[in-house]
Structures are given as C-alpha cells and as structure tokens.
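User: quick one, fold this
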Amino acid sequence: MATESDLNELVVVLPPPSKFIRSNYHPITAGHCRARDKAAREYRADGAIAGLEALAGRKAPAWKSATATVLYRYAGRQRTPQQLPDLENVRAELKHAVDGLQDMGILKNDRHFEIVGVEFEKAQRPEIVLRLRAGR
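Assistant:
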C-alpha cells in the first residue's frame, strides 16, 4: 500500500460535464450565462468530490505539477464518434473539474497541469476517467 509520501498516481472518475460548459455549445437563449455559471460551479464541486473519493482517506499530495491521460467513456446514444471532442475541447470541458482537484489539494496550482492524451471508449455509462501522475 502506498504511503502518503509515495502518492505519485491517482485515478479520478468524473461524470460527464453539463452541455452548458462544453466549449462548442452556443445557445441563443436568455439566461444562458446564469446556467453556464451554475454548471461550472457544480462541475468544480464534482471534481472536488471525485478527488476526495480517489484519495480514499489519504492526505492530498499538493503536486506542484502533474500530467493526466483521459479516458472519455461515452454512451452510444449520447454522442456519435463524429461528435466526440478533440483534445482542446476536452481540456476546456475539464477546466472546472481540475479547479475542484486544486481545491481539494491534489494539485498545488493547475497552471502546471497538462493533459497528455485522450482516448475514447463506448460504454454503458458515460464517465471521464483521469489518470493523474505527479510531475511532468
């Protein structure tokens, strides 16, 4: 079992983000900004909760820098392969969740956080799996 000082890898499982914080979502409705801001706050909280669950009682490592690979599991009816986001959109979609990981103390500053790869997998239940590693 890893001790708190050797915690160099962490697997965080997140729900998919709301459509309101997806970078390619452009509604023409009044009140969109309020809905987007609310969704951003909720996804930040989701990131913090997922980080807490991943720590499983261990002390948060406060990594100065970290990298992540992303496994983006999507449901067949939710998105077709042509609708899957590219790397830049995945980064944008996960921004608020990464802020939540920083709130939990897993990351010292998200400025030194980098997504190094994204894979997509069709699944029964949509979710996003972040495999975080300390350092660059």
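User: anything notable?
Assistant: The helical segments are 32-55, 87-103.
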